[in-house]
Write a structure and sequence with these properties.
Distance between the termini of chain A: 58 Å
CATH superfamily of one domain in chain A: Tetracycline Repressor, domain 2
InterPro entries (chains A, B): Homeodomain-like_sf, HTH-type_TetR-like_transc_reg, HTH_TetR, TetR_C_27
Oligomer: homodimer
Keywords (chains A, B): DNA-binding, Transcription, Transcription regulation
Number of helices of chain A: 10
CATH architecture of one domain in chain A: Orthogonal Bundle
Helix content of chain A: over 70%
Largest interface: A-B, 29 and 29 residues
CATH class of one domain in chain A: Mainly Alpha
Organism (chains A, B): Sphingomonas chungangi
GO molecular function (chains A, B): DNA-binding transcription factor activity; transcription cis-regulatory region binding
CATH topology of one domain in chain A: Tetracycline Repressor, domain 2
Pfam families (chains A, B): TetR_C_27 (PF17935), TetR_N (PF00440)
Strand content of chain A: under 5%
């Protein structure tokens, strides 16, 4: 199977929808949750599923690639929570506030309920793994669409270049969005995140 | 000397102005800079100065107390740079901008020129050592005085409760102020810090 084209996800190999891939990810999720990323080897995962290490390497080029898959899944759950929260919001103002609140609360829940997976996400963000870069890019796109919507509706000012407004907003959201930083701000959720959203909304006022 | 009153600095013992204390701090600074905090023992420091470990423990109750002293010195250099930068600023607007720029640039210089000392500062901020808590408190005081000055001069709005405005500003300054977070933003200095200062100034506009 090693002559199959690499899938688009970082470090993944073989057909994207193969059920073996899901089995490996499920086993990794369980092992990483229990023992942590650092202490789990590809051999441990192979043993848990009953395959050889070599067979696992047909689907993932390294342990990091498996970590990436877990991390993408974890960060995608935050993005899904954000998208769901936004469908219920009527104004751009409300959307921006809900965006940051949902990111902060949803990520904090991972920190408390699934500490070892959170550690992978924090490590991924600290090391700029593709999974976390994609996550940040997706959030920046959502922020851009909210700012544009607020500019169109007259809720937000239009003088600041849109790129700068979004870049600066993403920077000040970092302490609640980047798991590597949020770990120092868990006590400030949700009040601190709410106050930061208010500050950003004041900065966007016409 | 062990019956002397403890000095006010965390974990320091004996008379505050004793030259032995300075010798220990100087030796620790050199050792930590070269080998890192984790790899330096109190025995290494004792050997470097030619004293016994027991004698060093008459001045510092633990290695962390020595780390605290180094960290305080390092963070105090940033505070001094900020205070100097502010004396040249005429308006509250200019002061706020210079404050964040100076923090970001000055802390980034430590990261590049004295990496191992920076690691102690980052660790101190991550672990809320008194040295870093004092540093943040001092910066919050400076931010408060700038916001009050800007409110008095009519540069800044007065509707937001002052405590909230300062708290939120301190939160959004974190990615450039907290060494544990700045390490992920070194590439964004000084432009990103400048854009964050602009965002905060827009939020403070009347």
């Amino acid at each position: 199977m090693s002559d199959l084209p690499a899938s688009t996800a970082a470090g993944q190999r073989g057909p994207a929808d193969h059920s073996i891939r899901d089995q490996i990810i499920a086993a990794a999720d369980e092992h990483f949750s229990r023992y942590g990323y650092g202490k789990t080897t590809v051999a441990d995962l192979a043993k848990a599923i009953g395959f050889s290490k070599a067979y696992i390497y047909k689907f993932f080029e390294s342990k990091q690639a498996i970590g990436e898959a877990i991390c993408s899944k974890c960060l995608a759950s935050v993005t899904t929570d954000v998208r769901n929260a936004l469908t219920e919001s009527k104004s751009a103002t409300e959307k921006l506030r809900r965006l940051l609140n949902t990111i902060a609360v949803s990520t904090t829940e991972i920190a408390f309920n699934d500490q070892k997976i959170y550690e992978i996400a924090a490590y991924s963000c600290a090391e700029n793994w593709p999974s976390s870069v994609n996550y940040v890019d997706e959030m920046a796109e959502i922020v851009t669409s909210i700012v544009l919507e607020g500019r169109a509706s007259g809720e937000f000012e239009r003088k600041t270049p849109i790129d700068e407004a979004v870049r600066a907003t993403m920077l000040v959201f970092q302490p609640f969005m980047n798991p590597a930083m949020l770990q120092y701000n868990l006590d400030a959720v949700p009040e601190g995140a709410n106050e930061v959203a208010s500050l950003v909304l004041r900065s966007l006022a016409p």
